[in-house]
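To illustrate the input format used throughout this study, we show a single complete record. The first block contains the structure-token representation of the backbone; no residue identities are included at this stage. The design step must infer an amino acid for every position from geometry alone.
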């Protein structure tokens, strides 16, 4: 299985984008690929299957493509980006990559293993300048979780839990590097084959923290067993990176316009398990 049928993508795939990525003659099909809307352009005699998808930030998408283009990860497939005919990675807010087979599955330990392998491969990648002065919700929430920024959070939707947990932060001695902190739901599995990473959303944080974010996500929303949190306890500074991971998600939740006390239930479970290990 490659990509699941989807409701129509929010924006039609423009003809000039199709032409730029050399699929002007192909009728694209809207799909969901790792929970992301995209257009599937089927293979021809001289071209593999492509996915063309809208991107939220052109600079980040272009940087991600430049890294993934040559990145080799031991035991992990990478969805290789495809350049447009003029050499650009992004055309009018759209990017393309080769289609990698697989679906998202609740193999939570395997996703953490993919994260560790990916971050081993990224360890020499320089800090991207595009992270300078980023003020988007993800980066602001991560900065708050690491004690670098103070936020005014909605108390009923996560702020109260955040304040109660934040006092437990202790200094950690871990090197920062390029990491992908949003890998939950972004790894594809194709039976017993090699798993695939579909994108790269950069942050400059320790690799152990990015692994902890996956664990928190799996506990909160992936119906993971309680033992997941301890199976990765051999990672350095594990209780403290877990704490910062759950603070990160609480900060995000408390700022989300659709958040409610009801949607906080999964994170409350993760909070209980993390707190017991501090």
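Output of the design step:
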């Amino acid at each position: 299985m490659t990509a699941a049928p989807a409701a129509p993508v929010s924006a039609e795939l423009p003809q000039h984008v199709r032409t730029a990525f050399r699929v002007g003659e192909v009728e694209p099909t809207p799909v969901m690929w790792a929970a992301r809307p995209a257009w599937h352009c089927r293979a021809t005699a001289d071209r593999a299957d492509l996915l063309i998808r809208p991107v939220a930030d052109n600079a980040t998408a272009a940087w991600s493509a430049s890294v993934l283009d040559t990145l080799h990860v031991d035991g992990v497939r990478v969805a290789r980006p495809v350049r447009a005919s003029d050499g650009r990675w992004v055309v009018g807010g759209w990017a393309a990559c080769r289609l990698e087979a697989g679906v998202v599955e609740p193999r939570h330990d395997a996703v953490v293993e993919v994260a560790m392998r990916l971050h081993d491969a990224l360890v020499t990648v320089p800090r991207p300048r595009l992270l300078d002065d980023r003020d988007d919700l993800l980066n602001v929430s991560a900065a708050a979780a690491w004690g670098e920024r103070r936020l005014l959070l909605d108390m009923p939707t996560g702020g109260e839990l955040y304040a109660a947990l934040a006092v437990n932060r202790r200094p950690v001695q871990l090197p920062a590097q390029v990491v992908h902190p949003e890998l939950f739901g972004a790894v594809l599995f194709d039976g017993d084959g090699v798993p695939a990473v579909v994108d790269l959303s950069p942050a400059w944080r320790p690799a152990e923290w990015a692994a902890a974010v996956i664990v928190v996500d799996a506990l909160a929303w992936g119906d993971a067993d309680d033992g997941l949190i301890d199976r990765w306890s051999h990672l350095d500074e594990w209780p403290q990176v877990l704490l910062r991971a759950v603070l990160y998600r609480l900060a995000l939740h408390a700022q989300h316009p659709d958040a409610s006390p009801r949607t906080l239930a999964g994170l409350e479970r993760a909070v209980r398990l993390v707190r017991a290990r501090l």
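Structural context for interpreting the output: The mean pLDDT is 92. The CA atoms of residues 24 and 177 lie 39 Å apart.
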